Amino acid sequence: QSALTQPPSASGSPGQSVTISCTGTSSDVGGYDYVSWYQQHPGKAPQLIIYEVSKRPSGVPDRFSGSKSGNTASLTVSGLQAEDEADYYCSSYAGSDNSILFGGGTKLTVL
Amino acid sequence: QVQLQGSGPGLVKPSETLSLTCTVSSGSMTGYYWSWIRQPPGKGLEWIGYIYYSGDTSYNPSLKSRVTISIDTSKKQFSLKLSSLTAADTALYYCAQDGPWVPRGAFDIWGQGTVVTVSS
Asked: What is the pLDDT of residues A97-108, one digit of tens each?
């Protein structure tokens, strides 16, 4: 069981869009529509922003969107704002051992 | 609105066993998966394991030999025991809610986190 693969960093200017990838295998990301994304600001607990690949919890701005193609899921943040600067983590259900995997995290910088 | 409150010792000695408890305030434990997740200083999230309200468990294979998660629905609490501690187990330990009915890895409610330091 290996962690999901995310780029360590991403950046964009205010108003721009940025996409963060999350790559797994056919046993996790590719095999189930149970991919989630979390936003974590320094010193805070993670906050769920996307679940089941593309669904947004109540209160999460529609600037955040999720998708999946094959074994890779993606989080897109549109209309970047200063407050979007944070760490982002993906997670996926892994059916082979009925477990949950996290990605290594991506630090998003708003330039 | 469900809230989670983790509790336990902040300092544990190497080779000893860590015991943490998470208390669920308001709402019901029925139908949900209750997880422990940790984050070493400056590092990413690591799922430790979950317990279903019925008592079924699943653990991270890399920690399975050292982890036990239990639940007491009458007290609205679930607990983590992690044995044979080393410095590598030093982390912020979160409890979190997933579900309902299926373990999706969609943790919508998190506790505040409990800092655990393993040191003699």
From this structure: 899 999 999 999
